[in-house]
Specification:
Elements: E1 3-9, H1 17-26, E2 35-40, E3 43-48, E4 62-63, E5 69-76, H2 79-85, H3 98-107, E6 117-125, E7 130-135, E8 144-148, E9 151-155, H4 158-163, H5 173-182, E10 196-197, E11 202-207, E12 210-216, H6 230-248, E13 255-258, H7 263-275, E14 281-287, H8 296-305, E15 309-315, H9 317-330, H10 340-350, E16 356-358, H11 363-367, H12 371-377, H13 408-417, H14 424-434, H15 436-450, E17 455-457, H16 463-469, H17 474-477, H18 485-494, H19 511-517, H20 519-527, H21 530-535, H22 541-544, H23 550-569, H24 579-584
Parallel strand pairs: 13-14, 13-16, 14-15, 16-17
Antiparallel strand pairs: 1-3, 1-9, 2-3, 4-5, 5-6, 6-7, 7-11, 8-9, 8-10, 11-12
């Protein structure tokens, strides 16, 4: 993967070279294999490359003589098919990102409709006097922008815009409310005031430093669930999954995968083993803590059954306290998902041996694996409840005020997901794909892997695969109290050792247990942080860290992560050691 950034001025003058250099430096971790620059009139762009396909001639920008130029943070899986469709169009490289540039020249803004892959693309077209930004339909690859009276700027990460001095770091109040209550901020607004997200599937047209057009490409197909027999559905699932995994394995560098003891990653491993002659390298995290399911034994059994090479990473409380400040520093578009801890440490280990990782994000959304779907479909008198009806800080009396608009992005996602013919289950799935998936799971995956120069790929999040999975019959996704029912059937037939129908505990990280062990010391340090004093009632934070229970644990973790995030990304202070040393070093003024 890569990092991209650029500036278009409003007055037609050339962008400041120092700004571009600062953004390139800030994005260096995303592209350690090279830097590319582009300048033409009122627009300048910079590209940091992580070389994965076409290692020799794939440098960017890619330009057509006397025509448009492209930079991209992308993997386009159907680039060979696109090249063939272009006929006699001469290609200067073997890069997967060159065919999209020629598609743009041929089809204009509709070029994205032909792309299969993950991408954040910027195209400058001097002849049309416009800059075009496009993001993939699932929002796998990030892209942010800001508008000022004198310029428009974009970057793969918000921190690059801040590092270049284009905007002063400040917290967006409504987004903070969402982070506190949901543990992620949804919608267009990032946690940084003035910095917005290009939405999943969105295409922006910018001219003279102003957005003049917006378009949107849907990730999911239209229409209700399709009828199918069990045999037909299993055959379609097998073919579509194999096709997606095959496409996602395209690389000129070593690749591996993240393996838990769960259904999604086990299914990916089965297909990777089917498609590769060499053993797949599978990385698994485990925890040294009481009361937490350690998935290493199950993952090891699955890996051995298909001849994969199992690599295990044990994570304990000492690592948690020592490494959390740097992890929070890596996740600039904050999501307080405790899975950032194992994801970051797994990526660090994997990056020593591979350059690409396949991961199971999206399986629960595509095949209805979450318990919240079952709860939302039940009537209220049977314990049914709307998704995300309760916030992390409800009834705790810790915040100065409960954020009034914290469910706005959730409600907007539900509205956007409601389409003619869709079932109630499809609407719930589509809501998660619009909101939770890109702004929590995919932010976590992108930042934790890119911090180590590692590319993450998500075969379940593929527009071609979605055509099959999203329109499966509802009762083959969710049967009784069993989610991902059809995938379990498929996996049970192909890998019995995976124990596909065994009730498994959800993936958890023992942060609540670790925090409780050190809560007496941690609570006063958290309460003294300027960011926490601004949002919490005096005297209410330290007692929270002495409390027990899941609800208090989630709240305590959220405040801890936010305090570390704010210290790094708003106050601009680098980590000063472990959690306790870093918090103690924060200025109190």
């Amino acid at each position: 993967m890569c990092g991209i950034a650029g500036v278009m001025t409003s007055n037609g003058g050339p962008p400041d070279q120092a700004v571009l250099e600062a953004m390139a430096k800030a994005l260096a971790h995303r592209g350690p294999d090279g830097t590319g620059h582009y300048r033409a009139g009122d627009t300048a762009m910079v590209h940091r490359r992580l070389a994965v396909i076409d290692l020799v001639t794939g440098d960017q920008p890619i330009m057509i003589k006397n025509g448009p130029a492209l930079i991209a943070n992308a993997e386009i899986y159907n680039y060979r098919e696109l090249a063939a469709d272009l006929g006699n169009t001469p290609l200067a490289t073997r890069s997967d990102c060159e065919p999209p540039l020629h598609c743009y020249r041929r089809y204009g803004l509709d070029f994205v409709d032909s792309l299969r892959g993950m991408y954040a693309i910027a195209i400058h077209d001097p002849a049309a006097d416009r800059l075009v930004l496009a993001r993939d339909p699932f929002g796998i690859k990030p892209l942010y922008f800001l508008e000022r009276p004198d310029l428009f700027a974009f970057a793969s990460e918000p921190q690059a815009l801040i590092a270049a001095g284009l905007i002063a770091p400040a917290v967006a109040k409504d987004a903070l409310g969402e982070l506190l209550q949901l543990q992620y901020a949804g919608g267009r607004q990032s946690l940084f005031a003035g910095i917005e997200r290009v939405l999943p599937g969105e295409l922006l047209v910018i001219s003279h430093g102003r957005i003049v057009e917006r378009h949107r490409r849907a990730a999911l197909p239209e229409g209700p669930p399709e009828r199918a027999s069990l045999g037909q559905a299993l055959a379609r699932l097998d073919q579509a999954l194999e096709n997606s995994v095959h496409a996602h394995q395209q690389a000129d560098v070593p690749f591996g995968m993240f393996l838990s003891g769960g259904i999604d990653s086990s299914a990916l491993l089965v297909l990777m083993a089917r498609l590769n002659s060499r053993p797949v390298r599978a990385y698994t995290a485990g925890f040294r803590a009481a009361g937490v399911a350690d998935e290493r034994a199950q993952a090891r059994a699955v890996a051995q059954a298909v001849g994969a090479e199992a690599v295990e990473v044990e994570i304990d409380s000492a690592q948690f306290w020592r490494r959390l400040p740097e992890i929070a520093a890596a996740v600039d578009d904050a999501c307080a998902d405790y899975a950032v801890v194992p994801t970051y440490l797994l990526a660090e280990r994997a990056a020593k041996e591979v350059k690409v990782i396949l991961s199971g994000e999206g399986g629960d959304e595509m095949l209805a694996g979450y318990g919240r779907y079952r709860a939302a479909l039940r009537p209220w008198w049977r314990g049914g409840r709307a998704m995300r009806a309760r916030g992390v800080f409800d009834r705790l009396n810790v915040l100065r005020e409960l954020p009034p608009a914290w469910r706005d992005s959730v409600a907007a996602a539900a509205v956007n997901a409601t389409a003619p013919g869709r079932s109630r289950l499809q609407i719930l799935q589509a809501s998660d794909c619009v909101d939770w998936l890109p702004n929590d799971l995919l932010v976590k995956l992108d930042r934790c892997l890119m911090a180590h120069g590692l590319e993450g790929r998500t075969p379940f999040l593929d527009v071609e695969l979605a055509k099959t999975l999203f329109r499966l019959p509802d009762d083959m996704k969710l049967s009784g109290d069993v989610g991902k029912w059809l995938l379990r059937q498929w996996l049970d037939q192909r890998l019995p050792v995976a124990r596909a129908f065994e009730r498994k505990r959800g993936f958890t990280v023992p942060v609540a247990e670790w925090i409780a062990e050190r809560g007496v010391r941690l609570g006063p340090l958290i309460e003294a942080q300027p960011a926490i004093r601004a949002i919490c009632r005096p005297g209410r934070v330290a007692p929270l860290y002495r409390a027990r229970g899941k609800h208090a644990g989630f709240a305590g973790w959220t405040l801890l992560f936010y305090a570390l995030w704010h210290r790094r990304h708003i106050l601009g202070l680098a980590p000063a050691g472990d959690v306790f040393e870093t918090l103690a070093a924060t200025p109190r003024d």
